[in-house]
Amino acid sequence: MNNDETRNLDSEAGTASVVDMHDAVKREKTLLMAGNAAAGISVLVVSAVILFVAGGQLFSNANGFSSSIYKSDFYSPEARPPLGGEEEVGADVAWIEDWMSDGKKVYNNCVACHQPSGTGAPGQFPPLKGSEWVDGGTERLGAIMLKGITGPFTVAGQSYNQQMPAWNALNDEKIAQVLTYIRREFGSLAEGEDGIVTTEMMKAAREQYADKAGFWDEASLKAISADANLPGAKVDLITGKPLGEEEAAPEGAEAP
Amino acid sequence: MTVQQPTAEDMQERAIIDRSARFPVMFFFTSAAAWLFVGTLLGLFSSLKLSQPGLGDSFGIFGYGRIYPAHTIAMVYGWAMQAGIGVLIWLMARLTRNPVRRGLAILVAGHVWNAAVAVSIICVIIAKGRSIPWLDFPGWLWPLFAFSYALMVIWVIPMFHSRKGGPVYISEKFIVGAVIWFPWIFLTANFLIGAETAPVLSAGVDAWYISNLITFWMAPLTLAVAYYIVPKIAGRPLYSYTLASISFWVLAVLAGWTGFSRYMGGPFPSWMPAISGACSILLLLAIIAAVANIGVTLKGCSKVWELSPSLRFTVFGVLMLAVYALLAAASSTFLIGGPLQFTPFSAGLDTLAVYGFFSMSLFGAIYFIVPRITGAEWPSGRRIRRHFWFSAYGIISLIVLMLVGGIAHGGGMAVWNRPFSTLFSISTAYSTGLCVVWAMISFSNFWFMHQLGMMFIGKGRKSGGPTLIHGEPGAAVGAKEAAGITS
């Protein structure tokens, strides 16, 4: 084909003569209008199957087009076993949960007076819930546990005249557990306070008050500052190990 | 059926229309092909990141979360939208027998669109996108897309109004549909997501948008191309206008309902995924009608299908449309879709739509259109062959991989106490295979871009006779023309 003639097509001017036209246009066939055959029976059958499946999908899942039902009957994911797996329950539980459940066991000694819910009995036994003694520092609580207390004293604006015996027969760990329990369960702790009392703290308290004779009364107890805490390191809630300490490498742990 | 010979006036009219369409259409084709190549390279890189996550770790811009969205933007807005617009402008001009007017406005809008795509990709790469699949570009950019889109395609409507000769051809319906549906879904999705409604709703709207961009833009254009190219090249009338019309109306009525089934079992009232799943299944009616129609029309034309690049790409695209529709319908039921949710399957399904059926049929149309508007023949049949086979093998491997990877990944996710990271080692075969797929597709598109570039700069073959897939260019022209092959 003559190049100049082909170029003419590209120019904007004029009408193209048949000679000017490119091969592709010349050899092109006419687009015939479509035939009008009816759809075959096979198409109808396949369509019926599709309609059936689509209807099944719609009406088995639509839940009556309710705007508040989110779950489909067809889709019910298997109930998941509790975290950690069935056989492994307890293996991965955080230290604090163990500590609290042990504390709850120790608290069985206390429920007769203070009640399982920590409300006490009005006029007779003081409550732990809402008590400024529980909410405050740990030193007063540790002191009461070791030596007992005798009335009259005021708790949450009400006066009580009773005697609480010393619980020094319990070991340091058990006292620490029950104090942690009542503080975390019934107390309203200050911001950032985790409420934990450790064995180490109770050991320190026992040494501190070893020479104290007789019960505490309100006046002598108030000599201890309300927010004084027993000495001892804070611990990690998950591991129960003191915070700020490098975890000791288990050197030779595998040796027999 | 006899092949009707066109008259001299017909030919002259076509030549005038083709010439009027040359600059806008070639502009869209070449820029789309360039974005496609960029998109496939980004696809290759993002799949490398899946199998070698440490790749280029020291640079934030190489993160998978940036490369993958950039890849989808290049593929969807760079390639799919522009190629679609180029093809529909030419098809509409030819079918309504109107020359393309306002070429300059279309070109200017086309440049704006390309600038918007480039800015989108840059924004995504520098982490200024909004992380919404297929709408990853920053929120302030969508009016620009909407505006330039309007300027590019609005001229199709007056063209359709002043159509000459005969009843409306089925392809015209699909084109007018696609032209109107795209702004509807694009504006709806952007308004609803931009209005900062509940995040859950945004996710649902986004799934709806993705699904509808496929069923309301890619599928109609694929069918418009197929209903045009197949009868044209085979030289036969389409088997049944009734069936074609049914496929159009089924698509028009039902496609807008799809999408929410992507989140079935999610926090939506259960009728929403249920109805959209049902509509995905019902869309099979349209697709089966179309495939049956085209299949019957082509009966006994295997010779043409072997030789003509346009026909081969288009028919492959229609077959992939059927595969896509089947997989989309199957995965919108709880039975099959449940285990495949949130796996490589859904990303693979989107890729199958963009590259599998839409791109392949559009390639067919482009192979048909470009020789007419540039007045030259494709330089090499061998490169077209390479383009076809590497693309075809790439897509078929992708389908296998997304099923295998999806089932493996979904099966792994169903085991509740399996650490999430091990899922990626389960689907290693998938991610490695994906690299090969994208390498093949990049390679094939390099040749497509190369060929199109040659045509663009006027280096096409000037001799007569179409470029066929087999045989040397121009050889035995007479014999092949006698066999009824036109391109």
Provide structural commentary.
The complex is a heterodimer of chains A (256) and B (487). Chain A contains 10 helices and 4 strands, in the order αααααααββββααα. Chain A has 256 residues and is mainly alpha-helical. Chain A has a domain of 128 residues: Cytochrome c-like domain (Cytochrome Bc1 Complex, Chain D, domain 2, Orthogonal Bundle). Chain A has a two-stranded antiparallel ribbon. A two-stranded antiparallel ribbon of chain A has the order 2-3. In chain A, a hairpin with a 2-residue loop joins β2 and β3. The longest helix of chain A is centred in the first third of the chain and has 21 residues. Chain B has one domain: Cytochrome C Oxidase, Chain A. In chain B, 74% of the residues lie in helices and 0% in strands. Chain B is globular. About 3% of the residues of chain B have low confidence. The chains are: A mainly alpha (256), B mainly alpha (487). Chains A and B meet through α1, α2 and α3 of A and α1, α7, α8, α9 and α12 of B.
How do you describe this structure in short?
The complex is a heterodimer of chains A (256) and B (487). With 256 residues, chain A is mainly alpha-helical.
* Number of individual domains of chain B: 1
Helix content of chain A: 25-40%
Shape of chain A: elongated
Residue share in helix of chain B:
over 70%
What's the name of the CATH homologous superfamily of chain B? Answer: Cytochrome c oxidase-like, subunit I domain
By CATH, the topology of the domain at 95-222 in chain A is Cytochrome Bc1 Complex, Chain D, domain 2
| Structural Rg of chain B | 22 Å
CATH architecture of chain B: Up-down Bundle
CATH architecture of the domain at 95-222 in chain A: Orthogonal Bundle
By helix and strand content of chain B, what is the structural category?
mainly alpha
Mean pLDDT of chain A: 76
From the alpha-carbon coordinates, what is the Rg of chain A to the nearest angstrom? 41 Å
Strand tally of chain A is 4
Instruction: Find the CATH superfamily of the domain at 95-222 in chain A.
Output: Cytochrome c-like domain
Tell me the fraction of residues in β-strands of chain B, as a range: under 5%
The CATH topology of chain B turns out to be Cytochrome C Oxidase, Chain A
